Amino acid sequence: MSILSDVLATIFARQTRKALPPPPSARSTEGLIQDLLSTSGEISGMTAAAHILDRFGKLDDAGKIAFFDHLAGDLGISPDQVRAAIDAFEADPNPANYARFLAAAEPARQELARRLNRVPGATPQLVAMRADLLRLIPRKDARARIDLDFQHLFTSWFNRGFLVLRPISWESPAAILEKIIAYEAVHAIDSWDDLRRRVEPEDRRCFAFFHPAMPDEPLIFVEVALTRGIPGSVQKLLAEDRAPLSAEEADTAVFYSISNCQAGLAGISFGNSLIKQVSEDLKSELPDITTFVTLSPIPTLTKWMKEEGIDPASLDDEALRATTARFLLTAKRGDGMPFDPVSRFHLGNGAHVHAVHVGADTSDKGMAESAGAMVNYRYDPETFAENHERFAGDKEVVASKEVRALLRAKAAA
Amino acid sequence: MSILSDVLATIFARQTRKALPPPPSARSTEGLIQDLLSTSGEISGMTAAAHILDRFGKLDDAGKIAFFDHLAGDLGISPDQVRAAIDAFEADPNPANYARFLAAAEPARQELARRLNRVPGATPQLVAMRADLLRLIPRKDARARIDLDFQHLFTSWFNRGFLVLRPISWESPAAILEKIIAYEAVHAIDSWDDLRRRVEPEDRRCFAFFHPAMPDEPLIFVEVALTRGIPGSVQKLLAEDRAPLSAEEADTAVFYSISNCQAGLAGISFGNSLIKQVSEDLKSELPDITTFVTLSPIPTLTKWMKEEGIDPASLDDEALRATTARFLLTAKRGDGMPFDPVSRFHLGNGAHVHAVHVGADTSDKGMAESAGAMVNYRYDPETFAENHERFAGDKEVVASKEVRALLRAKAAA
Amino acid sequence: MSILSDVLATIFARQTRKALPPPPSARSTEGLIQDLLSTSGEISGMTAAAHILDRFGKLDDAGKIAFFDHLAGDLGISPDQVRAAIDAFEADPNPANYARFLAAAEPARQELARRLNRVPGATPQLVAMRADLLRLIPRKDARARIDLDFQHLFTSWFNRGFLVLRPISWESPAAILEKIIAYEAVHAIDSWDDLRRRVEPEDRRCFAFFHPAMPDEPLIFVEVALTRGIPGSVQKLLAEDRAPLSAEEADTAVFYSISNCQAGLAGISFGNSLIKQVSEDLKSELPDITTFVTLSPIPTLTKWMKEEGIDPASLDDEALRATTARFLLTAKRGDGMPFDPVSRFHLGNGAHVHAVHVGADTSDKGMAESAGAMVNYRYDPETFAENHERFAGDKEVVASKEVRALLRAKAAA
Amino acid sequence: MSILSDVLATIFARQTRKALPPPPSARSTEGLIQDLLSTSGEISGMTAAAHILDRFGKLDDAGKIAFFDHLAGDLGISPDQVRAAIDAFEADPNPANYARFLAAAEPARQELARRLNRVPGATPQLVAMRADLLRLIPRKDARARIDLDFQHLFTSWFNRGFLVLRPISWESPAAILEKIIAYEAVHAIDSWDDLRRRVEPEDRRCFAFFHPAMPDEPLIFVEVALTRGIPGSVQKLLAEDRAPLSAEEADTAVFYSISNCQAGLAGISFGNSLIKQVSEDLKSELPDITTFVTLSPIPTLTKWMKEEGIDPASLDDEALRATTARFLLTAKRGDGMPFDPVSRFHLGNGAHVHAVHVGADTSDKGMAESAGAMVNYRYDPETFAENHERFAGDKEVVASKEVRALLRAKAAA
C-alpha cells in the first residue's frame, strides 16, 4: 500500500509545481478579488487567484486581519436581497426564483474561496488561511462569522468520501514522517529512532487520513500497537527494550494515540470513522485480532478532582481507580455530556468504557493530568451502533460490568 | 504519466470495493433519509446512506420521480425560518445568528447529499442521480429547482483544483479506453483499431480530466493531432493510411474533438481550462509546437442557413466560405451571443476565429450540419486574455484578418 | 495490483526512450563488435552497442545469417587455449589460473551479448535476435551451437527470481492486452469483446510472468476460470451467454489455457512455477477455492490413434473415453516419456491425470486433434511433490482411480 | 520519478514476503545442495533452495568457511572432463559437443547459485554470501577462485541494462534514506538533519542505481550540489547556514560524493555510467547547467608525499598546490596507472583534471589524507570519449591548461 500513497502525493505535487503564477501586477488585493469575482473566464481568473493567495501568505497579522475584515464586510450577504428573494421564491418556487434566492443567501466570499481553490496547490493555502482566521479573530467577534463559510466549504471538500486512508510506515517518505513527529500530540516522539519504534516493528502500525489535494499533509493519524491481551500501561507499551510480537500472535489492536494535524480543519469531522476503518483493515489483514481498544489519557481528571476537592496524593491505587471510574461514568458538563473531551470523542464514536488503570502513564504529563490513570475505551462491532444511540440519544455512558462495579464499590465505600 | 493515473484509479477503486453495505432493513427509504439526517454518528449513518444509494439505483423512473418529489418537498427550505433568521442576523450579525441563517437558508437535501457522499464509491452514484433528475424532471417544472442544489455541491466537489489531467494512450487501461470510444461525441470512433489510430501514433494525443473519487470515469476529454501547419480537412487528418509525423517535426497542435462524458455534470464548468492546460503540457514537452488551434465543426450552420433562406446546394466553394465567415462573425442569438454553441465555447475561452474551410468534413453528419464547412479557432497565448475580455464584455467575435476579409468580400459581392 | 505492473512497465519504457543512440558511423558491424569488445569504457562502448543492435534489426535474413556466422566463427573459443588453461589450472588451482581458464572457456560472443545488453531497451532486441537464430539456422547445423550461449545467458537473465507475476485484467493497458490476443495459442481470442469475456468477469482471471527489462512483453500467461465443480467442456466454459459466478461462490480454479509468448525464449524454463504461484495467489485471495485443475487439450491423440490404426469415427463416447485414458496413461515416446507434449508439461510439474472428457472441445481444432476429447490435470498441493518425483524418477504417470478404472475397463473389454 | 522507484521496491518486496519457506527438514545442507542440483522440478527445488539460504544466513564464520570449502571442492570443474569435452568439440564442433563442453567447463556451483536465486528475495542473500566470502577467504587462498564464479554470475545479473537510476530525496522512504546515511563513505552524514541538508534543498540532488530484485538496497549513489561556478571548498559547499540557490540559477553540477554500498558487489562495475546518466538527466531537467565536475578527495596524497620525503607542514599554499598537481599528473603505480584510486576512477570514466584547491577539505580526514587539498575532475561531453581513449590506451592523464601550468611552475621553481 505504501507506494499507492506516495504516488497520490506525487500526482498532485507535480501539478502544483508546474503551474506557477506569472509576476504580480500593481493592482490592489481588493481589486484582484473584484477581478476574480467578476470575470467569467476561468483562465484569466486563475492569475488573479494565484496572486491573492500569494499575497495573503506574505501578509503580517495586521494585514491578515484587514483581509478578513474585507471578507466579513464587503463580501457578505445583503439582508434586503435575501428577503426580496425569499418572498419571490415563496410566491413562486420555480427554479429561477430558487436560483436567485441561493445567490442572495450565499456570501460572495464563498465563491471567492471556490475560485481561489482552482489554483493548483491552493487547498492547503486555504486551510492555512482558516488557521490564521481562528488564531487572529476571537470566537465571539462578529467577524468570526466568516469562519462559518470556511466550515461550510471545507465540510464539502473534506467529505469522508474524498479522503484516503494511508498506512504510515518506515517505508513512508521522510517528508511525511517528519510531520508525524511534529503533530503527535498525545505521547511525544523524541527523535527519528523513537519514530521508528512506533512504525517499523511488525507489531506497530500507524494510519492517517489524507486528502488528494493535500497529499503531503496528514489530516489525522492514529498509532496502533498489536498486543496479546489489553495493556494497562503506556510506558510498558512503548518501552524501548520490549521484544516485538509477530503480527500473527496478536489478538488485540490498541489505539494508543490519535492526533489531529491541521489547525485550519478544526471542527471538520473526519476522525470518527478513522478507528472504524483501521479496525476493519486490520481485521481483514490479521483475522486473529478480535479486540479493538484504546489506551487513552484522561486529560481533565485532576482538574475535575481539584474542583471536587479531592487530593490525588491522598488516594491509594484502589481509591484512585474507583475515583477515575466515577469521573468517567458520572462527571458531566453543563449540557449533560461527559466532562472529559477524550471520553466524549470515543463514546460519541460508539466505544464504551472497558477498563480503568492506575500507574498507567507515569510521565510528567500523565501524572499532572490524571495522576497516572488511563482508560481503555473498547470498540466492539457488536455493540457500538447501539452504544452510539444510547450515548447520542440519552447521553448514557456505557461501561463494562467491571467498571460499573468499581463505581458501586466506591458508592458502597 | 500513464501509471500515475492508473494508480489514482486503483487507490479509490479499492476503497469502493471493500466497504459493501450490510443487508437492507425493512425501513422505508424516506425513513432511512430521516435516520441519516438525524444521526450524529457518522458510522451508523454510513449504513443508512449505503442503502439509500443502493435502493435509488434500483428504482424505476416513477420511483425516481417520487424520490425527487420528496427532495423537492420535505427537504427544502422554509421561507418563514429564512425570514426569521435573516432578521435576527440583521439585528445582530454575530456568528451564532449567522450560523442560524446559514442553516435556514440551506435545504436539508444538500446535507443529505453530503452525507450520502461519505459512502465509498458514492460520488459517481450521485452524479448518476443528477443525470436521472435532468432526464426525468422538465427544466421548467418547479421541482427542477432541486437541481440547483446538486449544482451547488458539484461545483464545490468538482472544483478545478481537485481535478487531475491524465493522458489517455494505448497504454491506458482498456476499461478507460472503452469509455473514450463510448463518449466520443464529435467524430465517432468505430472500433478498437480506430481508437488506436487516435491514441497510439506519436503525432496523436488524448487528455482527460478525472476526479479522484471517480477514477474510472473521464469527465471531459480532448483529442489532439500534432501536425505541420494548420489542417483544413478532418478526413485527411484522420485518414487511416496517413504517414504519422514524428512528434519532433510538429509545429501545430490541433484540438479536433472535445467531448463531455458525464450527463450528470452538465453545466459544471471544468472544460474551459482543459485546452489551456493541455497546450502548456504539450509546449513543455515539445517546445517546437507554437500554434494551438482547433478543427471544429459548425453544428448549426445549415440550420441557420435554412432560417436565412439560403440553400447550401446553391453555393459554390467561395460563396460557402464567405457565408460561413458571415455566420461565424455575425449570426447571434437573442442575447447577443453567437448562434453556434461550439463558437460560444471556444470564443468564451479566449480563442479567436482563425480560418474557415469548405469540404472539410465530408461525412454525412458534416454535410448535414454545415455543408462540409469547418473552422479553426486559435488559442494564442498572446491574445487570449484580451480576446476573452472583448468577448465576455462586449460580445465581440474576434477573428483573423483573413476571415474578416471574407466577410468584406461577401459584403462587397 | 494492476497499477504496480503498469508502473513497472513505465519505469523501463521511459529509460528506453530517453537514451537513443547517436547517428551511425561508417565503421563496419564487425569493426563495431571489435570496438565494443576491446574498449574498457562502458560509455564509449554504449554507442557501438546501440549501433550493432540497430543494424542487426535492419538486416535481411541473409545478413542475419552472416552475422551469426561471425558469432559462430571468430567469436568462439580456442581449443588450444582451453587446453593450456585447464592444464595450468590442474597444476595449480589458484584464482589467477582459474580466471584464465574461465576466460578461455567462455566465447567472446557471450561477453558481446552482455555488453550489447547495457543499452537501454536491448533485452527484447537480444531475445528477438535469438528468435531469428532459431528460425534461420537449422538445429543440426554446427553454427546452431551459438544458441547454447544465448541459452546460457538467458537462463541467468530470466532466472525465476527476476520475474514478476502480474494479473492481466480489463484494467490492464491496451498495449498489453493486444499481445494476449496475439499470443493466445490454445483457444484463439477473436476480438476485443472475446478478450473482455476472458479477463473482465469476476470469475475469470489471467496472469502473466514479466521481466523488468521487458515490461511490455508477457513471457507466458495462463487463463483461469473460477467454477463450481470441475468442468468437462471448454465450449460451455467459454460460452458467450453464460452467467458469471461471483468469485466467492467458486470452489475450483480451472487453468484452461497456457501460452508461451516469446519465440526467442524457447526452452528457457519459467513456466513450471506459474501454475503453482497463481494457485497460491488465488487461494490467499479466495480461501474457498480448494481445487486446482486444468482443462487441457490432447493435441496428439488422433495422430497417435492413426499410428495405432484406430479410427476415431468408429468409437462411441465410452470407447473414446477409454482410448483416451489408455493414450494418456500408456502411450510413450522412445525415451519413455508420455507421447503428448501437454501431458509431459503438466505431469512434469507434479500434476496428475484427474478426469477424461469426450465431446469436450467441439471446435474444428479440437475435433481434428483429439476427436473432441480433453483432460483435467489436477494440481493437488498434497501430492504434487510426490507425483513429481514419481514422474521425474520413474516416468510414472499418476492418475486418479477413475481414470485408472477406465483403463482397466478397456483392458477388460 | 520518486514514486516510480518506490513502486518498484514494493513490487518485489511483496513477492519476497509472501513466499516463506516451509519448516526445515533434517537433511544436511550438503544433502539439500545435492537435492537442489539433482531435481528437475523447479517447485520442489524451491524449498531446498530456501532452506540452504536460510541456514547459510545463520551460520557462524567457521560454518560459512566450511560451506565455501564445499563449493570450492565438490562443486568445481573436473579437468579430465573438460579435456575430453574440448577434444570432442574440436573433432566435431556440433551443438551437442559444444553443450557437453559448456557443461564440463562450468562448475556446479554456478548452477547452484542460479537455482538458489529462484527463491523470492534470494538475490540480496547471495550478494551477502559473496560479502562473507570476500571477508573470510584471503584473496590469495586457492579457494578464493570460487569468487570468480560469483563475479561471473553477478556481472550477468547486475548488467547495466537491468539497473534503474532513482533519485533520492526527502520524499524517499526512510528505509532507503537510513541506508544513504549508513553507506556515505566520503563526507560522513551525522544525523537526519544533516541528511536532509543533502537531499531536500532545491540545489541538492542525490541519485542511486538500484536493481529490481534488491529494491531496498542502493548499489551506488552520488550526491550532487548545483552551484554557480566551480567550488573549491567542501566545507563551504556543505555549510549548514548557506543560502540555497534556486535550481534555475545554477550553471554547474558538482558531484561531491560517490559511495559504493554493497561489499558483495565489489568489482562488479556499474558505477562508471552513473555520472554520465545523472549528467544527462540533470541537463534535460535544467538546460542552463553546462558544467559537470567533481569536488574530489585525494586520499593518497600525504601517503605519497611521505614516500617522496615531502613534509606537508613545510609547504605554503602555492607549493602545496603545485605538489598536488604534480602528484595528480605524474605519480604512478607500477603498472603506469595513477597512484590515486579516485583519480583512476574518474580518469577511467573520461574526466580530466580541471583544477586543484588547497584548504578545500579542512576536516580531520581531509587534513590527514591530503593536507586539505582537493581536486575537480571535469566531465566534458565534448572531450570525454577522447580523454577516455587517451587514458585507457596510453595511460595519459589529461589535465586543463591551468593545472598543467602548475606543474611547469613547479618544474621551473
UniProtKB/TrEMBL annotation, chains A, B, C, D:
<dbReference type="GO" id="GO:0050080">
    <property type="term" value="F:malonyl-CoA decarboxylase activity"/>
</dbReference>
<dbReference type="Pfam" id="PF05292">
    <property type="entry name" value="MCD"/>
</dbReference>
<dbReference type="InterPro" id="IPR042303">
    <property type="entry name" value="Malonyl_CoA_deC_C_sf"/>
</dbReference>
<dbReference type="GO" id="GO:0006633">
    <property type="term" value="P:fatty acid biosynthetic process"/>
</dbReference>
<dbReference type="InterPro" id="IPR038917">
    <property type="entry name" value="Malonyl_CoA_deC"/>
</dbReference>
<feature type="domain" description="Malonyl-CoA decarboxylase N-terminal">
    <location>
        <begin position="78"/>
        <end position="158"/>
    </location>
</feature>
<dbReference type="InterPro" id="IPR007956">
    <property type="entry name" value="Malonyl_CoA_deC_C"/>
</dbReference>
<dbReference type="InterPro" id="IPR038351">
    <property type="entry name" value="MCD_N_sf"/>
</dbReference>
<feature type="domain" description="Malonyl-CoA decarboxylase C-terminal">
    <location>
        <begin position="318"/>
        <end position="380"/>
    </location>
</feature>
<feature type="domain" description="Malonyl-CoA decarboxylase C-terminal">
    <location>
        <begin position="161"/>
        <end position="309"/>
    </location>
</feature>
<dbReference type="InterPro" id="IPR035372">
    <property type="entry name" value="MCD_N"/>
</dbReference>
<protein>
    <submittedName>
        <fullName>Decarboxylase</fullName>
    </submittedName>
</protein>
<dbReference type="Pfam" id="PF17408">
    <property type="entry name" value="MCD_N"/>
</dbReference>
